[in-house]
């Protein structure tokens, strides 16, 4: 892409609960911030219900019109999670259980003593030809097919997936990142992390709690387009964590 | 409308600042809640930039597809507030200074010692044939043309306009409301209002601060589809306010 014309993006939020007002969307603002950081122009957002016709139509229209389409929601285990099927239909490809996704889910269930069932296995249904997007929070992966990136709707999971998606986006100025496994829970490190964020405005610091099988721990992801600023923020964060 | 099929609605949020992430949308959830309260199905939301082609296309598509379209944003005094012009274009009608809107603005400016200027007068530009939507917070009105209701983007103003819009919507079960002028500022009445809201779940209580020329006061709007519940909430609120 020429530097003068940044890539364009759209977001598609899928879920009856947003349209009814029961759940308030927290993903649009986060994705908007992230895309701005990496120099991609978010040009349109749509929210649609968990209805096949609405999802298929929106996926087709938005993926044709913009360079990138990001979706959130509808990839869980229940009957109304139909996003993967709808994306397959929009691309005209079959869908089935993805062997790597099945293996990821089974390993996670074993570690956490969760009994596999058919509903949970639905989360391994991935359109043919798609690439998996890792999910460090709850294992069940998202996926990319063509220019469409399919993520979970739960904000903590979506944010962790977005870190992976960002690496794959057609950014004009590549974003670099550093990951710090902080060990402790978010409550223990929040004050230190907020200070390092305030002192390092050229770096965006994401904090993602996840369960490591024993308890909740925190992964910090530092992102910047400035290598020196990133190195300094990493140093400051490591020092702050060591001092806790 | 037959009772078995509720009216359908879409929301169009207009504004670069939402897409860039600088401003986080607070209107979608509020409108979703309100429409659910009055028995209207919100089926789609779109967010587009302050660009004529994007706004005109979205207004045309959504007003044709759904019974009602509600828009927020882009009706202020600056050069990038182009919603009224775009709605006029979408409907193929001329736009000009609406005499009633001009009078409303001039009366408000006089009361608040604000000097009129060309930019402020832009807020009186209304498409031909449109009906004004009152704005108790900051005077500059919204408007309705056909099935499209055009509201401000500032949440406090949008919420006050939404109270007026709701009265005009094709609800299957009509919503009844009571207005209480609480006099004092929001901070003085918030605890009492929250208690009355908690005790009266069948009634939704909206709190709208506005400037009456001397200082900020609060208008409370109580809405319900249940007349007895509404009367009881009104009684409880009046009692609570009298006890302050």
Task: Summarize the structure in words.
The structure is a homodimer of 244-residue chains. Chain A is 41% helix and 25% strand. With 244 residues, chain A is of the alpha/beta class. The first copy, chain A, folds into 2 domains: 8-168, 3-Layer(aba) Sandwich (Molybdenum Cofactor Biosythetic Enzyme, Chain A), CATH 3.40.980; 176-242, Alpha-Beta Plaits. In chain A, the strands form 3 sheets. In chain A, strands 2-1-3-8-7-6 form a 6-stranded mixed beta sheet, sandwiched between helices. In chain A, strands 9-11-10 form a 3-stranded antiparallel beta sheet, with helices on both faces. Chain A has a two-stranded antiparallel ribbon with strand order 4-5. In chain A, strand 7 (142-145) and strand 8 form a beta hairpin. In chain A, helix 2 (27-37) runs parallel beside helix 7, helix 3 crosses helix 4 (83-91) and helix 8 runs antiparallel to helix 9 (227-242). Chain A is globular, with a radius of gyration of 18 Å. In chain A, 41% of the residues are buried. Chain A binds chain B through residues 13, 18-21, 24-25, 28-30, 32-36, 41-49, 54, and chain B through 13, 18-21, 24-25, 28-30, 32-36, 41-49, 54.
């Amino acid at each position: 892409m020429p530097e003068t014309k940044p890539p364009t993006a759209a977001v598609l939020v899928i879920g009856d609960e947003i349209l009814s007002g029961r759940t308030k969307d927290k993903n649009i603002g986060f994705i908007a911030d992230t895309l701005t950081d990496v120099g991609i122009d978010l040009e349109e957002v749509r929210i649609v219900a968990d209805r096949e016709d609405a999802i298929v139509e929106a996926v087709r229209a938005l993926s044709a019109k913009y360079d990138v389409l990001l979706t959130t929601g509808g990839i869980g285990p229940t009957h109304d999670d139909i996003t993967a099927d709808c994306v397959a239909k929009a691309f005209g490809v079959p869908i089935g259980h993805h062997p790597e996704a099945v293996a990821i889910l089974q390993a996670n269930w074993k570690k956490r003593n969760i009994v596999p069932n058919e509903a949970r296995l639905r989360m391994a249904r991935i359109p043919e030809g798609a690439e998996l997007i890792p999910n460090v929070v709850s294992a069940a992966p998202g996926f990319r097919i063509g220019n469409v990136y399919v993520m979970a709707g739960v904000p903590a999971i979506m944010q962790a997936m977005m870190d992976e998606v960002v690496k794959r986006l057609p950014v004009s100025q590549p974003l670099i990142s550093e990951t710090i496994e902080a060990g402790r829970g978010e409550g223990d490190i929040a004050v230190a992390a907020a200070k390092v964020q305030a002192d390092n405005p050229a770096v965006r610091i994401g904090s993602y709690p996840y369960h490591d099988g024993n308890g909740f721990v925190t992964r910090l992801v530092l992102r910047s387009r400035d290598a020196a600023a990133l190195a300094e923020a990493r140093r400051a964060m490591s020092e702050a964590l060591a001092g806790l």
